[in-house]
Amino acid sequence: MLQNLQYFLIPFMDWQVMALVWAGVFAGIWVGAIPGLSGTMAVSLLISFTFSWELNNALALMCGVFVGAVYGGAITATLLNIPGAPAAIATGMEGYPLAQRGEAGKAIGLCTTVSLFAGMVGVAVLACAAPIIANFALKFSPRDFFLLALMGILLIGSIGGGDPIKGIMAGTIGILISMVGMDPSTGELRYTFGNLNLMAGISFVTAMIGLFGISEALTQFRGGGENPPKQNLSKIVPDLSTFLKFLPLGIRSALLGVFIGALPGTGGDVAALLAYDQAKRTTRNPVTPFGHGAYEGIVAPETANKGAIGGAFIPMLTLGIPGDAITAIIIGGLFIHGLKPGPMLMIETPHLFWMIVSLLVVANIALFVLGLLSVKPFAKIIEIPKSIIMPIVIILSVIGTYAIQNSVVDIFYMIGFGVLGYFMRLYGYATGPMVLGIILGPMLDANYRRAMQGAENELLPFLEGFVTSPISLILCVFIFLMIFTQTKTYKKWRGIA
After folding, report:
1. If DSSP codes are grouped into helix, strand and coil, which group holds residue 32?
2. Which runs of E-coded beta strand occur in 91-226?
3. Which among 64, 142, 262, 480 could disulfide-bond with 25, CB atoms 3.0 to 4.6 Å apart, if both were Cys?
4. Contact in structure between 138 and 319 (CB atoms under 8 Å)
5. CB atoms within 10 A of CB 76
């Protein structure tokens, strides 16, 4: 135990490691805030940049960027209604209306505070229960991942704004768009119409930048030149009573994020959307209705995607299986340094496990400090006149889109999605459900195919699995409850607005 404590204290005793964590968090915040630039991209670049470094220094920088980038996506989502990352889509639904009311500082301050709390929850679970959760996550079959994706798809009607039918229509189009390209199972081309540029499919990041970034810019230009809202920055850090008010929701959402993050291939994107939906379904009479600036709609997704960071490290460190894209890249970095992530990692190199736990603790503390210090500068962005800020948004959108695959074609796709998103907003269709459909479509498609192959392409054994498997049965019950909680009978019984 004493030896583990010594390993845990390594980042606190080495000023160079400590400085690299803080530098990584600072860089990650800015990377995450720019549409198209993601933590995955940043960490992948760091692999080649730091391969000759000492392992401790390389991990310090990568962990810092990871934590900072997840947080940074919420900044532009709140200020400009342009999520820097898919995990911040739900945050923007409530954060942007708050910014329009002059409460951007309070919204980002609350986001920063709950991020520290959720990050520490994720690290605590990683330190105390990693092997248990990892072994449980291994029991999830393709059928269970199919049900998880289906749960995400069911959120489409919930986040579609006032008209769930329009949300479902937008989400369905998103699922169809996700199918464009080469079939991963058969290699056949789908919906390419003979266009070779569509063989690789359409990146959901490209679609997200267009549907949120370009469409928002076009909408703002159409809205005229009214004065931007003046932000109230007198109180940024929420008081104790406010924090305690949201604590039960934060705990539930953080634990949900840890669990979803520990499932290979899911990550904070799915966790944030599920947490937002459960908050929307369970919150009784919020002060501000959801969709118009409910603080519960910021707390839930932000605690979930921060908790998912600790969760993503659980299968990586205990099983050698990445929890998300960034941990997959970090696994590659460990291999470069001569280590083999997996069951023997904690036995042969226990110092590595406890050092990563410590690095995540330091990163969350750095995020809290740097996040609060940057609230006022970031909040001033929304006060910049539209004629200045929106052209900058368009330029950053083009740069971010090109940086994804160094493809000029992606820029044209992005512009096309921007024009589509503009007309969707004009006629009352939310753009979030379409992005959600593009993100979850491949997960739904791939796991359905794997589950059917496991049932030898027989429908009856496939359906029997939903009843005979305990995990599948529980997920089916959750899906039923998700549908039931949208009925008028349930809402009347619970008194939910």
Report:
1. helix
2. 181-182, 189-190
3. 64
4. yes
5. 28
